[in-house]
Amino acid sequence: MNNRPKIKPERKQKDVFIDYLSIAILVSLWAYLFSVFSGLPEEVAIHFNALGEPERFAPKAGIFLVPGIGTLLFAGIKILSRYPHLFNYPVKITEENASRLYSIAVKMLTFINLAVVIIFALISIQIVFKAQGSDFLASWIFPLLTVIVSVPTIFFTLRMYRKR
């Protein structure tokens, strides 16, 4: 790993757009939560099982825990994406393929970051909906979250194998 070339892959306009979209979703989520905060009951469900049933409750300020974790994860993944030579790869990195594979890996992290933001936004919205008496997302949130994370990971890993 220490012998890998330290190349900064070129980011395309689409990648930058996805970053801005992720940030826009985060900002919108925080604005939404602050706007509904005063109307929530004093205690809200903050953890759900795979069926969408509440398992743990907290004071209503607990609605900020989930987007807080999501925001920290977004920032951490964004920082990590600046160091593609440190990533684990499913194929051997060489001088010839480094630029190509680094570019794919950074793009994968960009999409995973968007997925993380969407996941934490959906969970936060589920918490608010549940607190307001709605089960809108309850039964299908877990399968949806699994798909949102799995699809970009599988897609870009297969792409690395093809482009090695």
How would you describe this structure to a colleague?
It is a single chain. The protein is mostly helical and 164 residues long. The protein has one domain (13-163). The chain is 59% helix and 7% strand. The protein contains four helices and two strands. It has helices spanning 13-36, 65-80, 98-131, 141-163; strands spanning 43-48, 54-59. It has a two-stranded antiparallel ribbon. Strand 1 (43-48) and strand 2 (54-59) form a beta hairpin. Helix 1 runs antiparallel to helix 2, helix 2 (65-80) runs antiparallel to helix 3 and helix 3 packs antiparallel against helix 4 (141-163). The longest helix has 34 residues, at 98-131. The protein starts with 12 loop residues before the first helix and ends with a helix.
Provide the descriptors you would attach to this structure in a database record.
164 residues, 4 helices
Distance between the termini: 16 Å
Oligomer: single chain
- Tell me roughly what share of residues is in helical segments: 55-70%
In angstroms, what is the radius of gyration?
Answer: 19 Å
Instruction: Kindly give the count of domains.
Output: 1
Strand composition percent: 5-15%
Unreliable residue stretches: none
* Class computed from helices, strands and strand pairing: mainly alpha
Please summarize the sheet with the most strands: 2 strands, antiparallel
Q: Count the beta strands.
A: 2
Which geometry do the CA atoms define? elongated
Order of strands, main sheet, comes to 1-2
What's the helix-strand series? HEEHHH
